[in-house]
Amino acid sequence: MSNEGVDKGRRRFLTATTVAVGAVGAGYVVTPFVLSMNPSARAQAAGAPVEADISKLEPGQMLTVGWRGKPVWIVRRTEENVTDLSSLDGLLTDPSSEMPQQPEYAKNVTRSIKEEYSVLVGICTHLGCSPTYRPDIGAADLGGDDWKGGFFCPCHGSKFDLAGRVYSGVPAPKNLEVPPYMFLTDSLILIGADKGAA
After folding, report:
1. Dihedrals phi, psi of 192, to nearest 5 degrees
2. Mean pLDDT by 10 residues, the chain (198 residues)
């Protein structure tokens, strides 16, 4: 067999074209598999830090923000609320926050960066119910004079003060969790990130 009538230029062109088309096709086949290894935008957003604007939050009010599928409460405490916190130590299971449920900068009587603001994950540490905000001081159904405002879990009766510290003698074994957070400005909190420091 003779190669006299073969156009070598045309053969090279067809070979190069076939290789290029094959490479593009392989790219289209491999791309979905590679992309499936990355988390989806929804999954990334579920764990991403969340900003909360507290500029309109009045003393005594609470704002709820969603983070990682959990409610996060931001409470602006009154001066009386902050003063009352130190009077509750004898009624609480872990008044000094010895159990590691908060960043180091929130291991204080207010369990917060700024004593005026409480930032807590709104899930009871007993069985995961969501307690209700009960800021009413002296509520008869919650202990009368011993109740200085806080959170009450209707599922099994656990009580927490306005710093998220659990009362003694209730089913919840631990204080409410304090998520990592930081103040971006005086009126903007970033929940889920703290840059390693307050």
Report:
1. 110, -5
2. 69 80 72 55 66 94 93 96 92 85 86 94 90 90 87 92 94 93 94 72
For residue 179, the Cα-to-chain-centroid distance in whole angstroms is: 6
Contact 52, 188 (CB under 8 A): yes
What's the CA gap between 185 and 195, in Å, rounded?
Answer: 15
Indicate the pTM of the whole model.
0.73
Rounded Cα distance between 162 and 62, Å, is 11
Phi and psi (nearest 5°) for 99?
Answer: -70, 135
Task: Count the domains in the chain.
Answer: 2
In a domain, 153, yes or no: yes
Q: Does residue 196 lie within any of the structural domains?
A: no
Do 18 and 56 lie in a common domain?
A: no
* Cα(150)–Cα(129) distance, integer angstroms: 15
What span, in angstroms and rounded, lies between the C-alpha atoms of 151 and 118? Answer: 12
What is the set of active-site residues? Answer: 156
